[in-house]
């Protein structure tokens, strides 16, 4: 029997979470979307009965933000119904459920970090569907339900902004990157570590249920983030030029301000995630290797 069950295990965060759990000596099983449809109650109940987890971490999600605008019902099935099904199964089995959520539940028009208790106000379909998932977990599991909101995720195990910029640096003379959206680049390795700590604290009774914000410390813009990526590549940061969101119109609105506060971690005896620059520097060799291959130089 497993102590931990990770859904959406084939994704970028799921891969790093399973690696962290293994490193921490935890007994864990990961199920990707081909192995478990979280919207199917019978399949979910069967998975929990088979593996007997004490903690379930739901990394499964519809993350195609723009597509959600035209396919909100489909996104809601994964982001809203799926967490409710998991929560109901955990209510029956006695397991803790940790639901990964997003900064998109906020409007993105603040000027100070969003607290865990700030009322949500999503502007788009993706945020609405993720908020539905949050509420399903907290309403169904008031004593064993946890929501961890994150943002601007990157990691070696999938496509993301950092890997895209590494690729583009090699083929573009200059890059125009938006400088009017602020957020917190967050390494999946750091988030995975906090998810492990939170799950353990939940079982120990030292972490109160509810909402936590799992993003890096500090803040930056996509433009400044890209310049830091270029610096780590040994490339000239001046090749990255600032532009505005109006130059990259997308179907879904992007939050102008995605900075989250991290007050609740310390009450649970857990340090919030470190500054984004330190995390990026540690993660960078693996990102470079994943994007360019094993023979890539580590500038």
TrEMBL record:
Domain RmlD-like substrate binding: from-to ranges: 5-284
Keyword Oxidoreductase: yes
One Pfam family per UniProt: RmlD_sub_bind
Gene3D superfamilies assigned: NAD(P)-binding Rossmann-like Domain, UDP-galactose 4-epimerase, domain 1
Similarity-based family: Belongs to the dTDP-4-dehydrorhamnose reductase family.
Known function: Catalyzes the reduction of dTDP-6-deoxy-L-lyxo-4-hexulose to yield dTDP-L-rhamnose.
PANTHER family for this protein: DTDP-4-DEHYDRORHAMNOSE REDUCTASE (PTHR10491), METHIONINE ADENOSYLTRANSFERASE 2 SUBUNIT BETA (PTHR10491:SF4)
Protein name: dTDP-4-dehydrorhamnose reductase
Organism: Streptomyces hebeiensis
């Amino acid at each position: 029997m497993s102590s931990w069950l990770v859904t959406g295990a084939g994704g970028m965060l799921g891969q790093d979470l399973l690696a962290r759990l293994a490193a921490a000596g935890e007994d864990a099983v990961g199920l990707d979307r081909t192995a478990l449809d979280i919207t199917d109650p019978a399949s979910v109940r069967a998975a929990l009965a088979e593996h007997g987890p004490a903690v379930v971490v739901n990394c499964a999600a519809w993350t195609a933000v723009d597509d959600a605008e035209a396919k909100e019902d489909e996104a809601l099935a994964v982001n809203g119904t799926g967490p409710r099904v998991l929560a109901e199964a955990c209510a029956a089995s006695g397991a803790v459920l940790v639901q990964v959520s997003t900064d998109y539940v906020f409007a993105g028009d603040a000027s100070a970090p969003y607290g865990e208790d700030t009322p949500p106000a999503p502007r788009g379909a993706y945020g609405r569907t993720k908020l539905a998932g949050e509420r399903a977990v907290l309403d169904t599991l008031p004593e064993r339900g946890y929501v961890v909101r994150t943002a601007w995720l990157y990691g070696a195990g999938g496509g993301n902004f950092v890997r895209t910029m590494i690729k583009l640096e090699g083929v573009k003379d200059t890059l125009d990157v938006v400088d009017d959206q602020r957020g917190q680049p967050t390494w999946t390795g750091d988030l995975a570590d906090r998810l492990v700590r939170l799950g353990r604290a939940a079982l120990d009774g030292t972490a109160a249920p509810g909402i936590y914000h799992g993003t890096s410390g500090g803040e930056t813009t996509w433009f400044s983030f890209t310049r830091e990526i270029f610096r780590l590549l040994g490339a000239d940061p001046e090749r990255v030029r600032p532009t505005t969101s109006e130059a990259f119109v997308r179907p879904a609105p992007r939050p102008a301000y995605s900075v989250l506060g991290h007050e609740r971690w310390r009450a649970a005896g857990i340090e919030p995630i470190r500054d984004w620059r330190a995390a990026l520097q540690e993660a960078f060799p693996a990102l470079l290797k994943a994007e360019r291959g094993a023979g890539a130089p580590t500038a």
